Structures are given as C-alpha cells and as structure tokens.
Amino acid sequence: MKLTILGGGGFRVPLVYGALLTDRGEGRVTEVVLHDLDDSRLYAVARVLAEQAATVPDAPTVTATTDLDEALRGADFIFSAIRVGGLEGRADDERVALAQGVLGQETVGAGGIAYGLRTVPVAVDIARRVARLAPDAWVINFTNPAGLVTEAMSRHLGDRVIGICDSPVGLGRRIATVLGADPREAFIDYVGLNHLGWVRGLRVAGRDELPRLLADPDLLGSFEEGKLFGTDWLQSLGAIPNEYLHYYYFNRETVRAYSEVEKTRGAFLRDQQAQFYDEMKRPDTAALTAWDRTRAEREATYMAENRETAGAGERDADDLSGGYEKVALALMRAIARDERTTLILNVRNQGALSVLDTDAVIEVPCLVDANGAHPVAVAPLPDHATGLVCAVKGVEREVLAAAENGSRTTAVKAFALHPLVDSVNVARRLVEGYTEVHPGLAYLK
Ligand code: G6P
Ligand code: MN
C-alpha cells in the first residue's frame, strides 16, 4: 500500500508517520512518498521520520520528491496537507484582516476566505492530476480551510476525496469522557460545516447522554468547550459547538484579543517553524527531540487568545495529544481493509443535511467501508445554526466561483457576504489588501 503525502515537508507529517508505525496489520501502508516544493523541508522531515523508524521493524519506507506527477503515480492513498503561501502567508492573512478590524484566522472569516482564494486553484490542479494519474486513489484532504478545499476537489474527484479534521473528534472525546462514557462506544450526533458544527447528542447504547451534561453546570464547566463558551451559553444553545464557533459567538472579544497580541498565531508559528527547519539544517541536531519540543510548544499555545478572553486557563493534558493522525489512520484502515467504522468527516452532503444541496461538502458522521464514506442522515439544525451554515456555504460558493472565473468582483462578494465581515467597504479594502501582499492572488482581475 502506497501513501503519498503532499506537503510532505510539513511539520505535522511525523504525526502521520508515527500513526503508521503503530499499524502492524495486513494491508497496512508499506511505502510513503513525501512530496514538497521545498527540498530542505523534505530533508528536515525525512530526518525526523528516520529517527521514528529506527526502533521499529518493517517500518514503511520513505522516499521524497519535488516532482508532483511522480509522487501521484501508483498511489493508493494521497494525503493533501499543503500550505499555499506558507506560514508567512498565514501571518499576512491575519495582519490584513486585523487592520480592517475583522478576524484573520486561517479558516474562519476574512482570513479563511483569503486562504481559500489562494489555495483552491492549487487544490484543483492537484485534483485534476490525481484524476488523470491515480484515478483509483483515495484523497484525504487536511488542507485548510478543509471543507471548502474538499468541495473544490470533489468537483473533479467526486466522493474519492474525503476531508478530515480532528476538532469534532476531540470534542466528542471530551464530552464522552466527562460523561464517564467510552468515546469508542459513543455515537456523536454532530453536524455542520468544517469548524462550524454542533454536537446535539451523544448516544451510548441508544441512550442520549447529552441532556445529563447540559443539566449539570459543574460537569459542563469542567472541559474545554465549557470553559471557552461558558456554561450558561451552552445551556441556552442546548448543544455543544465546535471550538471555532467561539470566533462567531464572541467575535468582538476575539478580534480585540488578536489585535492586542504581540504576535498573531500565524506570526508565532512562522517564527517558531523557521527556527525548527533551521535547526534541522545542522547535522548534529537530534531531529526527533527538536521536533517533539516544537510540537509540544505549538500544541500548548493552540487557541491561546480565545482561552484567555474566556478565562479558560491552560489546555488539559489530554487535549494536547492531537488526534488528527488517528482520524487519518482510522479512515485509511476502514477503506483499505473494509473495517466498517463511523467517523466524522467532510464529504458531499448527498441529502444528509436537507437544507443544503447534494454536492455541498458538510462535516457529518459517516459510515466508512471499502466503498468510501457514506454520510448518515441527521436531524435538521435549529434555525440559528442553519442560518450560519447556509451563509457560510454561500460564501464558500463565491470563493469557488472567484477561483474559477478569476473575478475580483466575485472575491469582494465572498468577503462581503461573510457574517463576520460587517461592511461591503471592508470587503473591498480586504481584497485590495490581500491582492497587494499575496502573489497567489494575482489571478484575480
Ligand atoms: C486543529 C484544527 C486544524 C488546525 C490545527 C492546528 O486541529 O482542527 O484545522 O490545522 O488545529 O492549528 P495551528 O494553529 O497549530 O496551526
Ligand atoms: Mn481542522
């Protein structure tokens, strides 16, 4: 089984490789091909992987290339985790948005739109090449904004592209744990778009345990989302939102907090990662140790500003271990070995959420087997959530249209229609600001 990783020089690749190393079964991945545009990043990551594999018998082989077509040919699975414009681009996304008093987060609001506008054309090119060179491969998309990018790719690959995110899994695990349930036994009734979904129920042996949580302020205040959103607000909603909804429900506070920080998340990661890749150029660096230290610091500071505005304190130790690689591995196993399982994934709606059309990519529990991911039908969302989901899907569609027709006017429309962009004039200035700093947006005329 051959797995190709696009963005193979990316910082989180060792997480995926680490998960592969735990898989000893028949039909596991035996060959990993890393693709990246940057040789020195490939070299750095390959060094970490070599140290990870050192003590493991029959570890998957690792090769690296900067030739995309060569990387794609013969692949059974293709992970796409690219970052168009790099972390410098992410920092620019934040800076330009904050200068207009709106949010620059890489997946939510203006920043997500800017990132989407420069990523979609690249993702579409990859999808077209996959359709030609590896038509039977399954594409697992991690590239943010994951829902939008998956939808762009699905127009060329149909249901062979599946988007993943670890935030719904982490959320489900936290809720199950506070309820004293085994996360593996629980069905999480979650639906929405990527980074815009709600847990409405958690069923163990057919019984919904969520009402018990919502009725108990102590339990509710004891985990990440309870601390972030506050118990009163969760009780009012009657659901547990994905952590990224903090940017919606507390927009004013998060924008203020992000404007006041010395370094935005993107700027922090840009500098932190540059230092890591520099260290990796020195032959005497202990690669795995340096990577692990950098990873721990990255995870400890995740969403730090949000937690600070909410007075939520430090992250729980259990939440630091990620989970994204586990979702990826579980998905590959289910497909490659027909190991039937349920996972929350980003797939085409196909009627699961009736308010959106069948081709809209949504985030929803799916039954996964050798035939791919099949969304389960879910109950409709309440009006306030439906409103947000439809508005943001409408924005995503404008981003896809702008990427296709290259029109600045369409790009302005995408920004202007976003619920977190409060004026058409702001949208115009955002398009000006972003096209000035991003070469990847030169196609907008
Ligand atoms: C979560 C999100 C991902 C995001 C990751 C890292 O897992 O679901 O979409 O890529 O965090 O965030 P960071 O700010 O460290 O890049
Ligand atoms: Mn995510």
Described by the principal axes of the CA atoms, the overall outline is: globular
What is the average per-residue confidence, as pLDDT, rounded to a whole number? 97
Number of helices: 20
Task: State the separation between the terminal residues, measured CA to CA.
Answer: 43 Å
Q: Helices and strands: which structural class? A: alpha/beta
Task: Assign the CATH superfamily of the domain at 2-161.
Answer: NAD(P)-binding Rossmann-like Domain
Highest CATH level, the class of the domain at 2-161: Alpha Beta
Sequence of strands across the biggest β-sheet? 3-2-1-4-5-6
Question: Quick one: how many beta strands?
Answer: 13
**Low-confidence parts:** none
Major sheet attributes: 6 strands, parallel
Instruction: Give me the CATH architecture of the domain at 2-161, please.
Output: 3-Layer(aba) Sandwich
Portion of residues in beta strands equals 15-25%
Classify the helix fraction into a percent range.
Answer: 40-55%
Q: Within the CATH hierarchy, at the fold level, what is the topology of the domain at 2-161?
A: Rossmann fold
Radius of gyration: 21 Å
What does this structure look like?
- The protein has 445 residues and is of the alpha/beta class.
- Among the domains are: 2-161, Rossmann fold, CATH 3.40.50.720; 168-249, no CATH class; 251-310, no CATH class.
- 51% of the residues lie in helices and 15% in strands.
- The chain contains 20 helices and 13 strands.
- It has helices at residues 13-21, 39-53, 68-72, 86-99, 109-133, 146-157, 167-178, 210-214, 217-220, 224-229, 231-237, 246-249, 251-260, 265-279, 287-300, 304-310, 324-337, 383-405, 408-417, 424-437, and strands at residues 2-6, 31-35, 61-65, 77-80, 138-141, 161-163, 186-193, 196-204, 207-208, 240-241, 341-348, 361-369, 372-375.
- The strands form 3 sheets. A 6-stranded parallel β-sheet has the order 3-2-1-4-5-6, sandwiched between helices. Strands 7, 8, 9 and 10 form a 4-stranded antiparallel β-sheet that branches. Strands 11-12-13 form a 3-stranded antiparallel β-sheet.
- Helix 5 (109-133) runs parallel beside helix 6 and helix 14 packs antiparallel against helix 15 (287-300).
- The longest helix has 25 residues, at 109-133.
- 6-O-phosphono-alpha-D-glucopyranose binds next to helix 14.
- Residues 146, 165, 167, 195 line the site of manganese (II) ion.
